[in-house]
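Entry 14. Structure prediction run on the chain below.
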Amino acid sequence: MNSCRISIFAKIIVLLFALGLSGCHADKVEHKKELLIYCGITMIKPMAEIAGIIERDYDCKILITKGGSGNLLKSIKANKIGDLYLPGSGAYIQTTLEQGLVTDTVHVGYNKAAMMVKKGNPKNIPASLDSLADKRFLVAIGNPESGSIGRETKKILDKKSIFSKVANNVQIMTTDSKDLIRFLKGEEADLVVNWYATATWAENEDSITVLPISDEYAEKKKLIIGLLRFSRYPEIARAFMDYAASEKGKAIFNKYGLYDVR
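Output returned:
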């Protein structure tokens, strides 16, 4: 009888000890450092790859929220949380610097806008910005108010003095580069203006042909990561920035069409 009681008591002790270890483990997971990055959709692939490296090296968790660069900036202003911001155009970073939202920056790559059509250009669309105003074609562009590609498209068309003509011909105006790809691949558009890098990705390269835009109108745009003023873990955020700006980091950005652009 006594031995039976001792056996039951021992099992209870083991169970309590196991629960204690489980509680400790849960506590460690709960308190793991967690960073938040705001990232324009076109840059999500290299940023996710670098995030995996930093998570491993610094035993942390990195969350990436993606969207149109303008919409992300609105979220940053409203919520005042997060660690890093990578928009599709340096103009947004300039705004954050002027408003005191970002305290430090690094250059990690380049974007360049291009016109895109279905693979092989079946409608023989001329590689001219004037094609965007041609009513024979279904045209989609980004909204200048919500994302970097929309802002850059307007800048390009304003430089050529045809933005109003193109706006009157546009069938779809959307928020970001992901939707522009979807419309082109889904037969909803014949011609779009998007960031060049998106056409180099494995899931898109067999569906899209690029019609380059002359450097006279479309310049290479610097991609700049900004450290947010309210970062909870600036030491890890800076380590992310340093890696992204290193030769290894630049090679990752280049792998996704975001360094050597044409």
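The longest helix spans residues 2-30.
Filed with the rest of this week's runs.
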